[in-house]
Amino acid sequence: MKNKISYGVIVLFAFVLGGLAMYYFSYTHRVVISETNNGTPVPVTNTCRSCNSTVIMENGSLAASVEKTFDTVVMIRNYQSTKLNGSGSGFIYKLDNKYAYIMTNHHVVSGGNKWIVITSTDEELEGTVLGSDEYLDLAVVRVEKKNYMNATVVGDNKKVRLGDTVFTIGAPIGYEYRGTVTNGIISGLNRLVEVSVKNAASEDWVMEVIQTNSAVNPGNSGGPLFNSNGEVIGVISMKLVENSIEGMGFAIPIDYAMSHVEKLEKGAKIDRPLLGISMVNITDSYYLWQQRITLPEGVEEGVVVIEVSSNSGAAKSGLQKGDVIIGFNDSKVKNSAYLKYLLYKYNPGDTVKITYNRGGKVVTTNIVLSKNEE
User: Fold this and answer.
1) Sequence-ordered alpha helix ranges (H) in the chain
2) Quick check: 252 and 207 in contact, CB under 8 A?
3) I need a labelling partner for 205 at 20 to 30 A (CA). Which of 96, 124, 268, 339 fits?
4) Where does 273-371 sit in CATH, by number?
């Protein structure tokens, strides 16, 4: 009898011990079944100790998308005669029977008279700049088509969401690091970033861009921003550079870029409208003092009219020197960069509503935009 009791205790103890062991193992090394985009179940290992959880997704690699897109990305060297001006990146967005068409930034090709395109196979091809525009910061370069070349798949910016996984391929710093892949997420949409276009002392243009924390360095300019499926959704254009800032890169939305690509391919000028005024920001107090212009009380944002061109839409609308433009259609005018950004969404011949402050009185007028011959 005593032996039977001892045997039962041993069995019970073994059962409890085994149960505790199974609980510990299942809690700290759980295997959860999830699904990929195509519905195929894959294991996801979850490790949890003291409520700190790290998830390692075995299918989380971007390798397949990188392999699909790698041959579409090129490096571009900009030469002035035999002197290297600089370099950047680009991507093939179209192929025909003879040529490959590459999209890049205007600032990657500007100032040069010779452009060398280095492909993913390290072949060097002389490129021809078909068209370029500094306000778009876009350019189209054409090279001879090669059998190994592929064109990117153009994505849809309407489907881009905050937090989406993205990656870039480019040549940060230069030739030695060509083909570098970095990844991150979409950090912001429809960001308005002030930049200097006309070598101005201050920002004179506003770009509407996608923000990403994917590493962007000198040499990435003009390269593609891909979504996780390997579709290009943006053209890398710039990053914020300050000691206190990390991981703030920006890309031109691909929908916006492609809407201008036909004109760029043809080398056609981008028609932009003209208000018919010269202007300064209200913050330019010294110049306003020189012009003997006194601002109305309470006006903190806007642009000041310095001169009105004769026979222009502005002249016909009654705008005068000293008027402070504070509104453009339904948008506030922060400064001259924002006014130009709003203006260039329209075409010559369009009518826009301008709101201005004259001596403390707010007035609204309509202006027919003329063609900018600059």
Assistant:
1) 2-28, 63-69, 106-109, 254-258, 261-266, 285-290, 313-317, 336-343
2) yes
3) 268
4) 2.30.42.10
Which phi and psi angles does 355 have, rounded to 5°? -110, 130
Instruction: Give the whole-angstrom CA distance, residue 191 versus residue 252.
Output: 10
Say which DSSP state 148 is in.
Answer: T
Going by C-beta distance under 8 Å and a sequence separation of 6 or more, which residues neighbour residue 174? 87, 219
Asked if 322 and 293 count as a contact pair (C-beta separation under 8 A), the reply is yes
Q: What is the rounded distance in angstroms from the CA atom of residue 283 to the CA atom of residue 291?
A: 14
pTM of the model: 0.79
pLDDT digits (tens, 9 = 90+) for 14-36: 555 555 444 444 433 333 333 33
Tens of pLDDT, residues 19-78: 544 444 443 333 333 333 444 333 333 333 333 333 333 467 899 999 999 999 999 999
Look at residues 362, 224, 336 and name the one whose alpha carbon lies nearest to residue 277: 336
Among the listed residues 332, 329, 307, 321, the one whose alpha carbon sits nearest the alpha carbon of residue 358: 321
Core vs surface per residue 113-151: b (16+ CB within 10 A) or e: ebbbbbbbeeeebebebbbbbbbbbbbbbbbebeeebeb
Q: Which residues are catalytic?
A: 107, 137, 221
Reading the block at residue 296, the tokens are 């109305």
CATH topology of domain 158-256: Thrombin, subunit H (2.40.10)
Could you give the CA distance from residue 64 to residue 90 in angstroms, rounded to a whole number? 20
Cα distance between residue 213 and residue 215, in whole Å: 6
Residue type, 4: K
Backbone angles phi, psi at 333, to 5 degrees: -100, 110
Report how many helices (DSSP H) and strands (DSSP E) the chain contains, helices first. 8, 24
| DSSP code at position 96 | -
Q: Are 87 and 78 in contact (CB under 8 A)?
A: yes
Dihedral angle sign, alpha carbons of residues 43, 47, 51, 52: negative
Domain chopping of the chain, boundaries:
2-59, 65-144, 158-256, 273-371
Are 66 and 229 spatial neighbours (Cβ–Cβ below 8 Å)?
no
Do 65-144 and 158-256 have matching folds? Answer: yes
Task: Report how far apart the first and last C-alpha atoms of the chain are (Å, whole number).
Answer: 109
Q: DSSP assignment, residue 295?
A: P
